[in-house]
Amino acid sequence: MTGQNVRWGILATGGMAATFTADLVDLPDAEIVAVASRSPEPAKAFAERFGIPRAYGDWESLARDEEIDVVYVATPHSAHRTAAGLCLEAGRNVLCEKPFTLNVREAAELVGLARGRGLFLMEAMWMYCHPMVRRLKALIDDGAIGEVRTVHADFGLAANVSASHRLRDPALGGGALLDLGVYPVSFTQLLLGEPSDVVAKATLSQEGVDLQTGALLSWENGAIASVHCSIVGGTATSASVTGSAGRIDIPYGFFFPDRFVLHRDGKDAEEFAADPADGARNSLKHEAAEAMRALRAGETESPLVPLDGTLAVMRTLDTIRERVGVRYPGETG
Q: 150, CA 20 to 30 Å: which among 36, 57, 196, 233?
């Protein structure tokens, strides 16, 4: 695929799908050709809202549409395995929302499908594609703060939702960890890789999902990270990375920062600010652009969001859930 528009299908019609589609239409080389929902009415309404030519009332029809180059999967994460799997089995490339799946077993099945068929598959971890996060990682990789020793990252909000809401429904993969905790865990592993040990505690709801979770991750080289997530209280949603020669502080919204501060030992603090040309700090266009770049290059994985990294994050999330006693319906072991 070279020098042509990339044709997108949108699978799901909820808020996340709408946000992604609104950003996707701003990319001149992206063409949205179809949308699907579980029933015709929401698909038609979504298609009319965004001027999409085809609306399907079932997922299978979208998966079989050979005029689609890549499908963006934005269902609840409890359905990611089924939805993305349908598309991969039908020969479609896939960009799948995070958390990638409910557990690493499901994630490995999707990765196996994609690799076995030579198809492109990427987790929609927009943080990894964000220009400011990429700039931060480049500074750390270049030794700006020396060897990374500690990482702190948190993401919490006061959801105030009932027991029937998806955030508290075990059947939908509810809880703070998969919905919000995936960000601090992914941020930490972007810088340090997969931890060698995990200690975790959580406050569980009556339904058996985590209302808030804290975890201490450690590595054989001595690095330690603390991560926290919550759906019962708004946190600073900030991050800090300390190295042997300095520190980087990221204020509110560490996963889509508009600025961060570099403290080098013995030097004045340096503030790095986003380039206005990059657009809104919360834009999802960067992950879409990366998926399209990879497709045109004939790549089946993105070097920014590699599948092995996605699997490593899922293993950590699984381990944290095991430590705190959260298990979803149908899981065994």
A: 233
CA-closest candidate to residue 101, choices 73, 82, 81: 81
Q: How far apart are CA 325 and CA 331, in angstroms?
A: 12
Mean pLDDT along residues 317-322: 98
Looking at residues 52-68, what average pLDDT do you find?
A: 98
> Which residue carries 């293993």 as its tokens?
315
Q: How buried is residue 264: exposed, middle or buried, by Cβ count under 10 Å (0-12/13-18/19+)?
A: middle
Amino acid at 142: D
Edge to edge, the sheet with strand 239-243 lists 197-204, 210-218, 224-230, 148-156, 239-243, 246-250, 259-264, 270-273
The proportion of the chain whose per-residue pLDDT surpasses 90, expressed as a percent, equals 93
Give Cα separations from 220 to 148, 182, 197, 260, 318 (angstroms): 13, 22, 9, 28, 20
The pTM is what?
A: 0.96
- CA 236-193-244 angle, to 5 degrees, is 70
**Whether the Cβ atoms of residue 258 and residue 132 lie closer than 8 Å to each other:** yes
Which residues carry out catalysis?
A: 98
